[in-house]
Design brief:
The chain is α/β, with parallel strands linked by helices and 464 residues long. The chain has 3 domains: 134 residues, no CATH class; 121 residues, 3-Layer(aba) Sandwich (Rossmann fold); 188 residues, no CATH class. The protein is built from 16 helices and 11 strands. A 7-stranded mixed β-sheet has the order 3-2-1-4-5-7-6, sandwiched between helices. Strand 4, helix 7 and strand 5 form a beta-alpha-beta unit. It is flat and about 80 Å long. The two termini are 33 Å apart. The N terminus is likely disordered.
């Protein structure tokens, strides 16, 4: 299922942040340029470097400190903005000290820029913050939700969430085997769980609340396994009244305990996801620039090695099951297989050049363009061919859950030796287990560790 409303809402939030950030950076750069020209009549190269370095440092710092959170008041936002700007200044000062370049800047210019930059940013923030809140208030793109359950607990949840400004309750879905007595409901019952897949698609449901009794734990477990392959956020709302909870992991929604069962990291941790996207695109663009000679040389060699296109493009599943087109340098002779077959160590379809570029993973380099397009990430589960997804879905529990995050050029499975051909279901299951572990424990820090370990994993002998 493709959730366009979630994507649109996430786009609007990111756009709100970037507009305010761009205005702030514009104010800072214009101010610095003006002060420099007034002081010396022109802009010296060190100040040009400073004008480039400042936005690069400000983006992650402003994101981490959540400077432009439209749900916070003006004073809180202004304080965060000041704190972020001071953090940027301290970081720039540390860079100047380490590089021994601080002496080339005019102290008068830098001091004026620091103080006036803070003042002008706070003034600009006032108007932009108010506009962002008004824009948010008019945003009607709510998340479509549904409740599995038709009993007392479901009825309480309907009433408790009636005033939710970010979600729209589409209806209820009955669980015929739960033993609960259906009571008069509004909204209406859409159907039962036997129609779950079609109901999610037809009503574009992005989030499900399971409102069944804790005595239905076995039924909920079976239902949850089924939901893992449906690309929908799942929250269990059990009736835990009278129970003593020890060391539990729950959240509170409208005063009711909620157990989050299945939620994509990209929607659950939006600020961190924005940082991940920023790192992806900055590093991918840098890699393309640095490796441009390798790209050109490989393209020439592949073209001369055998007839056919330089790039091999294959349709695979991306985030939330959306079909994407993954690029690779062609490493095989042109062939017309009736079904997709994994490459083996002595595969006759692989060209001599193909063996080398597969062994060194050079064939994967065009996927940096997939990252720049937003279809992939640097780190994430490797995207599999559509035929392989269809084959393994019924053989490995929660196989499709690996698509709850963007696919990556490298991943946790790859640095742990799960590369090359998967001859058995057990080998694929091991790879999927690593993918699910990555999603469950995802963080920006983990991505950086995987990127650092990836070059060492390329020394493995089972790559072909």
């Amino acid at each position: 299922m493709n959730p366009p409303q979630t994507a649109h809402r996430q786009y609007r939030r990111g756009l709100t942040f970037f507009i305010q950030w761009l205005v702030a950076m514009g104010v800072l750069l214009i101010l610095l340029a003006g002060l420099t020209i007034i002081k010396g009549g022109h802009i010296d190269p060190p100040y040009l470097v400073l004008m480039v370095l400042t936005p690069l440092l400000a983006l992650p710092i402003y994101s981490i400190l959540r400077v432009y959170n439209r749900y916070e008041g003006y004073l809180t936002g202004a304080w965060k903005l000041i704190l972020a700007w001071l953090t940027v200044l301290v970081t720039l000062g540390a860079v100047g000290f380490v590089s021994k370049t601080s002496a080339v800047f005019s102290r008068e210019v830098i001091l004026q820029w620091a103080v006036l930059g803070m003042v002008f940013q706070v003034i600009a923030f006032g108007s932009l913050h108010k506009m962002a809140r008004l824009w948010s208030a008019r945003d009607e793109n709510k998340t479509n939700t549904a409740i599995i359950g038709v009993g007392q607990l479901a009825n309480r949840l309907v009433k408790a969430t009636a005033g939710n400004e970010t979600e729209r309750l589409v209806g209820l879905i009955s669980h015929r085997d739960s033993g609960e007595v259906e009571i008069e409901q509004s909204p209406a019952v859409l159907g039962d769980v036997s129609q779950l897949s079609s109901l999610l698609a037809s009503h574009n449901i992005e989030k499900l609340y399971i409102a069944l009794s804790i005595t239905d734990a076995e039924k909920i477990e079976a239902l949850y396994i089924e939901l893992l392959d449906m690309n929908v956020d799942v929250i269990w709302m059990p009736n835990l009244e009278g129970l003593i909870l020890l060391n539990h992991s729950i959240s509170d929604i409208a005063g009711m305990p909620a157990i989050h069962l299945n939620e994509s990291p990209l929607t659950a941790y939006r600020r961190s996801a924005l940082i991940k996207t920023t790192i992806d695109k900055v590093l991918a663009l840098s890699a393309v620039i640095v490796l441009l000679p390798v790209f050109i040389l490989t393209a020439i060699v592949v073209k001369l090695s055998s007839p056919g296109p330089v790039l091999f493009k294959q349709k695979r599943l991306g985030w939330n099951g959306k079909i994407i087109e993954v690029w690779k340098f062609r490493s095989m002779y042109l062939h017309d297989d009736q079904q997709v077959k994994q490459a083996t160590q002595s595969d006759s379809r692989i060209t001599k050049v193909g063996k080398f570029i597969r062994r060194t993973s050079i064939d994967e380099l065009p996927q940096f363009f997939n990252v720049l397009q937003g279809r992939m990430s640097l780190v994430g589960p490797r995207p599999h061919a559509l035929e392989h997804n269809n084959y393994y879905t019924d053989k490995i529990d929660a196989y499709m859950a690996r698509h709850r995050i963007k696919p990556g050029i490298t991943g946790l499975a790859q640095i742990n030796g799960c590369r090359g051909e998967t001859e058995t279901v057990e080998q694929m299951k091991a790879r999927v287990d690593y993918d699910l572990s990555y999603i469950n424990n995802w963080s920006v820090g983990q991505d950086i560790k995987i990127l650092l370990k990836t070059p060492l994993s390329l020394l493995a002998r089972d790559i072909y």
